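Dear Dr. V.,

Thank you for agreeing to look over these. As mentioned in my earlier message, I'm a first-year student in the group and I'm still getting used to reading structure tokens, so any feedback on how I've presented them would be very welcome. I ran two proteins. I've put each sequence directly above its structure. The first is here:
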Amino acid sequence: MTRLSRKALALVAVLCSFSATFAARTNFKGFSDKVCIDLPEGFKLENSNNDTSFQLQSTVAPVHAIIQMYNAGKYSGTKEAMESSVSKLGLKADIDTFNWRNNETAIALFSGSLMGVKSEGYGAAVLIPENKSIFLVLTWAAEKDAQAANPYMTSLLDSIYVDIESYFSAGLLTSYTYPKQGTEDVTLNIAGKKIVTKLDKSDKEASEFLIEREYRVLLMYQKSNLWKEAWQRYYRLIFRDSSERLLQAGFDITTRLAPECKDTTELAQKLLTWTQGFKYEREKTSSDFASLPSILLGGGSDCDSRSMLLAVLLQGMNADSIIFVSAEYGHAIAGLVSDHPGFGFSVNGKLYLTGETTAKDITWGKIDGTQADSTKWIPVSLP
């Protein structure tokens, strides 16, 4: 496929044990404890075979999926594995390969009869660095549902993790659709310091693509009892996609500011104060979420994008951070584990000081008294 058709493909478009319902973040310990898939919420297990083959069906969208694992040596590479899989199912497929996570990855756009229904879908076959085995995923919908289900299916493919580093880098489909184009300089002004860093020229568009696609997936859960989990996944995937894009920025900020700070919390306060000075602006997109590269490039932002920016940068600095979102308050805040005193919310036995990004001169560990009810906040834990 050409890069143009790659873009068309996209645009038409931790750890749990197996059960009757597949949990969102599911790993495959019998195969590799590094492999994980962060499925859209609500998949149920239809069939399995020896913990290496799984057939799934979504209870939220008209989407099916097959997950298949092949031991090293079964196929010469991911392309052969994909060709063999679609051939056995009698499907017509357009298959391409590219490097993702420094290994050959096969992408497929296929059509044909599945379960007696004319269907369309996508596939990916990925080499697992740890043991050179192959992780293959096929996802499809009936031809009549395929266009509406595209965001759901492509989101599924983009939620594959093959090693620890892939928890902090763009998914395979986004990487395929938006290859790196070379860096550009970006100047930041933080705590009176001029900091020159870099972004890739593709980062802004790629990040915006992922956000809008994931928002379309999120909308499918408006009437589902899984809406909270879907909301958490939405932000998890934004965090994952943004982490590598902002890695250099985090390094440059730390190098410039950390020597003048007594500890991580003081550095985090400089970042919190910086975000409080941003231009408040609602996005004119469906998601209403500003991509993090666009914020660094001088674009407007609001509470959830600012909180996510803080979380990404702080995680890159090895600080334990989180974000909290609230439907009741219509707000989002950041969280930071710190030994400094202050107000916070407990998550998994850790106290996260709250960080308000939209009011100036507020320090970590303070919150509006009308928004202090922890039961009205949803934590979004990050890797």
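The second protein is here, in the same arrangement:
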Amino acid sequence: MTRLKLSLLLLAAILISGALWHRYKPLPDGLALHSLRHPASNLKLLVDDTWETPQGTRDMRQTIFDEVFRLIEQAEQLVVVDMFLFNDFLGAGSRAHRPLAEQLTAALEARRQQGVPVVLITDPVNTLYGGLKSAHLQRLQTAGVKVVISPLNALRDSNPSWSGLWRLCCQWLGNNPDGGWLPNPMGPGQITLRSYLTLLNFKANHRKTLVVDEGDQWTGLVTSANPHDGSSAHSNIGLRFSGPAAQALLESELTILDMAGAERPPLPALSTPSSPPANASIEILTEGAIRDALLETVDRSRDGDVLDVSVFYLSHRPLINALKAAHQRGVTVRVLLDPNKDAFGRQKNGIPNRQVGAELKDAGITVRWCNTRGEQCHTKMLMLTRQTDAQLILGSANFTRRNLDNLNMETSVRLTATSDHPVMRASSDMFLRRWQNRNDEKHSVGYHAYADEAQWKKGLYRVMEFSGWSSF
């Protein structure tokens, strides 16, 4: 009996120590990047809008992937693209507005056939962690595209109460795309139990970036949009830019190749603009550096400033507290949230946004909900507007523990410019168009439309956020 107790204690010690190590272990080199502040050139704000018309139908206006495909088509020396969801899964009852996975596959395939080196970095969720074949990825590999599946095991564990056991018992099992017998939760086909066991780790390369050569310089694009058919009607945001900041973005992506043990492509020598604009600068932010920039920007706000937030998920406790403190300082804080009711044909329960919305409303902050009709309000942005200057943070990262605390791989940017800069005006116009339902476009509804102040749900949100047993 004593031997059994000692064995159980030893097993518990191994599980707990392993879980703690993988939760707090050092990050791989090159992650949590906060680049230098680079002069910003060739800037363009890219917005995908979806709204309800006065006739009650859905309408939309899209620019993000049009620009992605334009940049890929003109590239002559290198294309590097990193996208989280890259598949044609729709989910039960969902429909595609646009076949984005096929369009991106065709664009990359065509460029590679013209002799341009192409690197695609993506998340293993697109093969259900090896439990399903991806026709798009196989087609690109056949065309000669370097396809790199992000090595998630190198990341910290966001769900240590499961991942400690999984790393001990299950990660060594591998997977089999021909052995599926369970339903695919994301679309057609069958997957293995091992796919489900891996899915419970809730970690991802959640980045959405593109870097290409454009003329004699690098051009980058950072966005919240996925080339995923089921996401093709979502509202999203992105930013295009050129010069040294795009080169810094490229280096941040090549870091993932290093992590995966993949060979880096030869890099052409491209010039830097000789006279960059002096009225705007841009910083590349990845992983925890995004959190630090968000908190720094909010903490910088003062009485008379305006903070506009539009995000798919808001649950990060330090950021929520910072927004409430800014409101108490006299900052005008406006928060536009997805109601968390739709997920690819399935109904969600509103957690965490409705609980956070109630907390912000109780603090005196004005909250509105996106008027979603099956799609998601997938934008991730925070903008600080002062009398003479402004800061805009946008990209892949939701404002959650998993997205901001060095658990997922994420990429956002921070643009600093004069408050009357064209991109800042465009960003403000976008937010107000959605906030005020301008031009007979019903983008949002008032707080009471989706208010949910049930105490047990508030408690559940806090437990889910703390423990990692959640998709946010």
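From my reading of the second output: The chain has 13 helices and 21 strands. The radius of gyration is 22 Å. Does that match how you would interpret it?

Kind regards,
E.
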